[in-house]
Design brief:
- There is one protein chain.
- By secondary structure, this protein is of the alpha+beta class.
- The protein has a domain at 13-59.
- Helices cover 27% and strands 33% of the residues.
- The chain has one helix at residues 47-66; strands at 13-20, 23-30, 36-40, 43-45.
- It has a four-stranded antiparallel beta sheet.
- The radius of gyration is 17 Å and the shape is elongated.
- The chain binds zinc ion.
- Residues 5, 7-8, 10, 30, 32-33, 35 line the site of zinc ion (ZN).
Length: 73
């Protein structure tokens, strides 16, 4: 299924695939009008959704590391 720009219906776009918190996240950028949007697991999502995902992953990661504080002096 080819993505189509929701703004100008252009079919040519830049697709950047990322992995956020072990999820496949895709950034689509329209080649014609420059609109950008995100997809997660093949579903259009708000950018805030991706940010939340990354923040949650970062938080759980740091929480895991917190148990043993390392001293570097
Ligand atoms: Zn467009």
């Amino acid at each position: 299924m080819e993505p189509v720009c929701p703004v100008c219906r252009e079919r040519e776009m830049v697709i950047i695939q990322l992995e956020v918190a072990d999820r496949d996240v895709t950034l689509l950028s329209c080649a014609a009008c420059g609109s950008r949007w995100w997809r997660r697991d093949g579903i259009d999502v708000e950018v805030g959704n991706v940010v939340d995902l990354a923040a949650a992953a970062a938080a759980s990661g740091s929480r895991r590391r917190k148990g043993r504080p390392s001293r570097t002096a």
